[in-house]
Amino acid sequence: MEKLRFIKSNNVYEGITDFANKHILTIKFNETIPTSTEFGSGFEILNENNNYVQADYQNFNTVYRTYADDLLRIELSDDGSVYIEPEPVPDPEPYEPTPEELEALFQSNKSNKIALSKTMLAEYLENNPLHSSAHDGVEGIYSVTSEKQSLMMSQYMTYQIEKNINPDAKLTWNETGKSCAEWTEEEFLQLILEVKAYVYPLVSRQQQIEEQIMICTTQDELDAIVINYTPVSLEK
Questions:
Q1: Closest Cα to residue 2, out of 21, 36, 37, 29?
Q2: Residue 80 to residue 61: CA distance in whole angstroms
Q3: In degrees rounded to 5, what are phi and psi of residue 199?
Q4: In sequence order, which residues have a C-beta less than 8 Å from that of residue 190 and are 6 or more positions away?
Q5: Helix (H) or strand (E) segment spanning residue 127
Q6: 45-69, pLDDT tens digit by residue?
Q7: In the chain, N or C: fewer CB atoms in 10 Å?
Q8: Which DSSP letter does residue 119 get?
Q9: d(CA 222, CA 216)
Q10: What is the tens place of the pLDDT at every residue in 160-194?
Q11: What residues form DSSP beta bridges with 55?
């Protein structure tokens, strides 16, 4: 704690000083604050043991700022400057999008929801493989993702081409998590038809959702459309 003696009155107060910048000095008084007239002559900092002057701040004789929420805090300036409360900045007016911007946003939301319906279908097919006994009458688990369906058809078309020039051509396919095994053509065609019967209602459901999205005219209508590929949602 510092001892502050104000020149005009010779009154001594206790406080802590700190520079806000080279022209502004902040004083935080301990218990008592000087009168306004005392500030007009500046002050000195005294040695706490012998009252010798340790620092001279007589030039800091203008009250720069006071604080209503902290009456023991005051700022003094040595250049005659005083604090000016900045003008309040008004809140910006809320932006009102144009009809064209609203329509563009709505169309974008429709496109995003259509994309979401396709993504969710792909995830459903990924997580819900087909259980089939097409191969040797033994139930197996078979992936029905779009990629796997394309590979299945490619495998069958390649087999058709190969058997025309190689009577010993073999048709192979694999159960999920297992290596490829030889299939008869009848077994493979049965699996293809089972995959089609399993996937087709789901694809149809996605197409129905997309049609519902496309005819929406308001965001509320769009938000009301539920994307769901569980078996219950496929019932008509």
A1: 29
A2: 8
A3: -85, -35
A4: 132, 134
A5: helix 99-127
A6: 999 888 899 999 999 999 999 999 9
A7: C
A8: H
A9: 6
A10: 999 999 989 999 999 999 999 999 999 999 999 99
A11: 45
